[in-house]
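Reading a protein record of the kind used here takes only a little practice. The integers have meaning only within a learned vocabulary of local backbone shapes. With that in mind, consider the following protein and its fold in token form:
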Amino acid sequence: MVDKELLKILVCPQSHQSLVPASPDILSRINSAITKGTLTNKKGTVVTEPIQEGLVTQDGSVIYPVREDIPVMLIDESISLPHTS
């Protein structure tokens, strides 16, 4: 789990939006796409490892994975989330 104090200062490196922990629903949808082999990161690489935790931009458009309690704040490693109404 990402430290609350760290979460207060982290922002998206591209949009500079604040970040919030990913909801279980978002993680479920992402991991379903990973299982199907249809999820790619911004670099275009197919994501193969399930995501147990992530940080989502305030507008809900991008998620950054958290691996071993460390947020991976690299634009190429981020994953675009579809907008849902």
Observations:
- The beta strands are 19-21, 53-57, 62-67, 70-71, 79-80.
- The first strand starts at residue 19 and ends at 21.
